Amino acid sequence: MNAVAAAVAGGAGILVGPPVAAIVYALPASGPFSVPPRCWTGRPAPRRAIVLTSVLTSTTAALGCSSLPLSLAQPAFWMFAVLGVALAGMDLRRKRLPYALTATLYLACTAGFIAEAFRSDDFGPLARASVTAVFVTAGMLAFALALPGQLGLGDVLFAGAVTFSLGWLSWQAAIVGLLAGLLIQGVVVLAAKVHRRDRALLPLGPALVIGWFLTVVLAG
Fold it and tell me: Based on CB atoms within 10 Å of each CB, which residue in 17, 46, 195, 202 is the most buried?
């Protein structure tokens, strides 16, 4: 069953690669975000970016979904794998994590988790995921307010989405995923310091996505 899930998820990941690349490259440095016309062609992303994005969306979706048991919550993890690639790319290029995409992750997880909770008649994972997301979001927001300039609201909301998703799996997964992302970010910041680069411009989103992905794969 895992092999079938990996094949389906990976195939779908390839198909959405071009539009994911398109929205990454269409994101402006500031102002409102909108999906570009004819995004299914990949434009305005260059061809090599379309290919790389398709490989990433296919790989993260296939490995992530194959690591999890088949359930109504699985599509939410597929969505997170795909949009996680988009958000990481946007943060790398523009230092932005659009609220619309983060909200889409929350909605996808909420729908999938509620559906699976009713199907299995077990609301424990849903409650755990919700509590984890609230506490992490509140903690990250407090940190952002205490140390202005270190975290943006987009980082705060995305960290909450990461722990909401991982909290469905277990308390440990949520904690490990968040700490893994922060540890990866710390290593990147340290490397930037050694090479005398501007640490203030380093995005947090890609590190959180990597932490989420590694946790999902290992948790399975």
Answer: 17
